[in-house]
Design goal:
- The N and C termini lie far apart (about 65 Å).
- The radius of gyration is 21 Å and the shape is globular.
- It has 5 helices and no strands.
- Helix content is about 40%, strand content about 0%.
- The protein has a domain of about 80 residues.
- The chain binds zinc ion (ZN).
Length: about 160
């Protein structure tokens, strides 16, 4: 049984350099010529976090693929078919709110899908078990409501 695929070796040049990542590489840290392009989710992430992000992208492939297809296929002959497939996938995923809305440019639509992907995966690629799936208000621990719990026994409580 082989679980290893040679995705890296055969990776299409437009894809993110992270192993197995299905996204388009759009960002590089190099100012010289390079073929190491990263998607915005993987850019500047360490390897461990990057692997979690990749796993999430595969779990959310309907959304990752939708955003990627818009980026790659917009204005191409394949676009009408891709558009229909994306809309279909979003309905199948029970996310009709993510479908293209009237008055929105395709680019704005793509950015909305990418934002949704980011907010589900989390800014630092934490697993969604640690992140609320619906609430995306970036709630931070509020030190103002932090109450200290005393574990010392009450004074004078001698037996
Ligand atoms: Zn990536």
């Amino acid at each position: 049984m082989s679980t290893h695929d040679d995705r890296t070796a055969s990776r299409a040049p437009h894809l993110c350099a992270a192993y197995g990542c299905p996204m388009v590489g759009t960002t590089t840290s190099s100012t010289q010529g390079t073929n190491e392009w990263w998607c915005w989710l993987h850019f500047a992430k360490d390897a461990g976090r990057g692997q979690r992000i990749t796993a999430e992208l595969h779990r959310l492939d309907w959304l990752a693929k939708a955003a990627t297809d818009i980026r790659l296929l917009l204005k191409r002959p394949e676009w009408p078919a891709a558009f229909a497939r994306i809309e279909h996938d979003l309905m199948l995923a029970n996310r009709p709110d993510l479908r293209w809305t009237d008055g929105e440019s395709e680019r704005q639509w793509m950015e909305r899908l990418e934002r949704e992907l980011s907010s589900i995966i989390g800014q630092d690629g934490q697993t969604p078990q640690q992140q609320p799936l619906i609430a995306t208000s970036q709630a931070k621990p509020d030190h103002g409501t932090f109450s200290r719990v005393s574990i010392s026994p009450p004074q004078g409580a001698t037996a």
